[in-house]
Amino acid sequence: MPRTRCYRGGVLTDQDFPIDEVSEHLAEESAVVWVDLCAPDLDDLQRVADELGLHELAVEDAAQGRQRPKYDRYAGHDFLSAYSVQLDVDSGRLVTAEISAFVTKTALITVRRDESFSIDALVKRWDDEADLTKFGVGALLHGLLDFLVDGHFDAVESLDDQIEQLEDLLFDDRPHDHTVQRRSFELRKSLVQLRRVVLPMREVVNTLMRRDTGLVPDQLMPYYQDVYDHVLRATEWTESLRDLVNTILETNLTIQGNRLNIITKKVTSWAAIIAVPTAITGFYGQNLPYPGFAHHSGFVTSSVLILVLSGALYVTFKRKDWL
């Protein structure tokens, strides 16, 4: 069922009325209407388009979905496309929910692809900022953008926490190479996806703040400026995290190389020590007479040589930190 609301003079006066009555509510002075459509078919969108005179290209974009975040201007109305995001901490996957909006001077029509976008949280944001609704559609649009950008900021913060955990695993005493590599790849992919969502929002908010749109009165300009500041911070944070993930991957490869060098050094040192008794016993195992052949002194001599030379190699390698 579509959700509808009507504000008059900034006060909520009616809600959950049929879409066919939108024009009647808009005919009243100082009325602002909000309509929400969840997974609508083309007929439902066409009804709203006929009711408000929406452009066919904007209706097509809302019906097809998968648009890049943008703010397009048409004669008589504007069209917004944006995404809410949420990080799945267990898998490291970024869950996105697309929302489109038709914006007129007196109406805001939101179109969602499915229930993954929390419309109840958005309505609560509007109710918490009820003192701003007197400024019309600009206030509702500000609440929507502020809600989306706060979600972007929360996702970036969660990604930052996950990357800090990766850094702890990186220098743990026990190797976690597979976990670090897999988790780094998942977070890097989520950061690339988040960048595609966050970066275009600068242009969206900047377009709305221009005077020629006529949607943002001077009283709301500081609020939009605050949203724009959050967009910039989220964008810069996302870029820095991408660089940090790349650094973690490079550092992990460096640590693996250093660990391999240490292992190779230790194996080589033990092989050199083991080669001593092998060489001595091989020499004394010759089938010909030699000093101490078939006598107890020969066994003592070989044993002493093995112990002394092996011990000398062990002490030498230990001093050189090869063992």
Automatic annotation (TrEMBL):
Q: Which PANTHER family match?
A: CORA FAMILY METAL ION TRANSPORTER (EUROFUNG)
Protein's cellular compartments: Cell membrane
Name of this chain's protein: Magnesium transporter CorA family protein
Sequence similarity: Belongs to the CorA metal ion transporter (MIT) (TC 1.A.35) family.
- Top-rank taxon, per record: Bacteria
Establish whether keyword Zinc is in the entry: no
Q: Does the keyword Transmembrane helix feature in the UniProt annotation?
A: yes
Stored Pfam families = CorA
Q: How does it sit in the membrane?
A: Multi-pass membrane protein
What organism does this protein naturally occur in? Nocardioides panacisoli
State which residue ranges cross the membrane: 267-285, 297-317
What keywords were assigned to this record?
Cell membrane, Membrane, Transmembrane, Transmembrane helix, Transport
